[in-house]
Specification:
The complex is a heterodimer of chains A (about 140) and B (about 100). Chain A is an alpha/beta fold and about 140 residues long. In chain A, about 55% of the residues lie in helices and about 15% in strands. Chain B contains four helices and two strands. Chain B has helices at about 1-20, 35-40, 70-75, 80-105; strands spanning about 50-55, 60-65. Classes of the chains: A alpha/beta (about 140), B alpha+beta (about 100). Chains A and B meet through helix 1, helix 3 and helix 4 of A and strand 1, strand 2, helix 3 and helix 4 of B.
Chain lengths: ~140, ~100
Amino acid sequence: MKKICIDTGVFSIYFSKNRSANVKALFDNIKNNELKAFVVKPVLIEVYFHICRIQGISEANVQLVSLMHNYDLNCVDLDEALILNAGKLKCQHPSALSLVDCMSIALCLKEKMEFHTTEKMVKKIPHPTLERLRIMKYDWS
Amino acid sequence: MISLCFYMLSSLILLIAMTSKITTVIVNRRGMITIPAALREKYRINEGSRIAFVEIDGKIEFIPIRNVEEMESACTASLEESSKIYDENKDLELKLENEDEENLH
């Protein structure tokens, strides 16, 4: 089964009322076990914050718990290798990548997974390590 | 004397007002409780519904779990609004992270 890593922006599209067809299809594929989805745990905090800003704390609680129960998301903790690699990426690209981006990218590079993201910046960063990163980009339209 | 009576009366009114909002249930021998009907109705909890129990700040929160359809239909923001909020969050995050770095230098 193909392994992928999902970024906050993709979840944010999913939690929009007129979510795009490709994001809906992505989540259907995860639900049907056609894709194995990974997410670093801090991404889920960003998703919570996103929902919270739109609909408040109670709704963020319900939606996030429902997300985690309905989809078999593999929530990844940071190990030593991920901490060092994410830290290195943040040092090299402090203003282009957030700490959470760095954690997701470090995971993708370590596990050779495709990175599903809305970030435009990632591919534009000239860096040999990031050239190895496989990206599936989603748009907000 | 009058002020004492007034104080007691207002305390009683406050107590009644507070207790009238709290519904209590009794846990049975098997640790089961009945969720009050008003809450079941409000949160659309039916037979077979799943509920998550989460301990937060010394309290147990009951969080009803929605199915995919309910979850998706509960989203209220348009893609445009969602995109705007995502960008704001991202900018704030990067700003805060880099402010820390600037302060270090």
